[in-house]
């Protein structure tokens, strides 16, 4: 299991469209900038993307600069998520809290008034309506400063035993009050081209049975990965899991994405430039993508239409959706129909059987590429950790 963690630990998907760098933090882990932060004495704004992956208290941000301390925590409970804010300056220490939406993935703007007696929290993630929460700040217990400069994540001195668990991105501090127009521009810039890829956030879309199914399927994908390959039966079974996760009606992955309010991403396996060179120079009879993840991400709708393989005879493009259906419906993964096959399906089956690398092993190798992509998508998007936490809560 250690190999799986090392392989996928750095394969972190964006929290929302437009997010470039994402870090996963857990067990007290943090990102620190130990230089004093020039945040002045006036109003201040913090922008950050977060995705919590467990229930409990999460220390998100600590900032120190110019005789000023700012703190921000999120507390995720079954009932919802609460924001906790601290502001300490020469005029005193202020504290306040207020409810936010229960979506686990958030794109946030925290705006603090000059006197620290009020704060405004905007959620401008590209799914759901924009949420705004005004927080009245009153006299409260000051932050226990055990950091320098700025820190994202880490343990909490205010709530011993708690630490951040999840992903963060797009952390920025401004020594001014950013206007509503700018925030709306940031929200608009994060909208994906295909609206169907945005989570609708529907708590209950993934019930307890669906949560167990997701984790059971994920466990099977991991076992196939650890085994290093698929036999004929495994090839067919993998096509059924892929179909349920990606193709069948209201797919299992989409249910999880909507239930948690977490953006779903897949590793980009197309290798566009490499693919163009291969097809132009070598004109292979069969082509399939590399299984290694290059770090780029695409939404589900785009991944389903990406190349799973390319057939030189007839120059036929076979997408991942078509490949899954071929194995599931024509080779017996969920249905067996040996007679009603299109020309490319007959060609693919024939070429796979003639493959000198091991007959039908070529199909299994291509399916293993998809198995790894599903693991990266589920783990990198955080829905596996979220589902495990949901399962543990239900059993408690």
Brief characterization of the structure:
This protein has 396 residues and is an alpha+beta fold.
Any chance you could write out the topology, listing elements then pairs?
Elements: H1 2-8, E1 22-25, E2 30-33, E3 44-52, E4 56-65, E5 68-76, E6 81-89, E7 92-100, E8 105-112, E9 118-123, E10 131-136, E11 138-139, E12 150-153, E13 166-174, H2 180-189, H3 208-227, H4 232-246, H5 252-260, E14 266-267, H6 272-281, E15 286-287, E16 297-298, H7 300-304, E17 307-311, E18 316-319, H8 320-330, H9 343-354, H10 361-380, H11 383-395
Helix pairs in contact: 3-4, 3-10, 3-11, 4-8, 4-10
How does this structure look, described?
The protein has 396 residues and is α+β, with helices and mostly antiparallel strands. The protein folds into two domains: 18-191, Jelly Rolls, CATH 2.60.120; 208-395, no CATH class. Helix content is 33%, strand content 26%. The protein is built from eleven helices and 18 strands. The protein has helices at 2-8, 180-189, 208-227, 232-246, 252-260, 272-281, 300-304, 320-330, 343-354, 361-380, 383-395; strands spanning 22-25, 30-33, 44-52, 56-65, 68-76, 81-89, 92-100, 105-112, 118-123, 131-136, 138-139, 150-153, 166-174, 266-267, 286-287, 297-298, 307-311, 316-319. The strands form four sheets. The chain has a seven-stranded antiparallel β-sheet, with no helix packed on it. Helix 3 packs antiparallel against helix 4 (232-246) and helix 3 crosses helix 11. The two termini are 26 Å apart. Mean pLDDT is 82; it is low at 1-10.
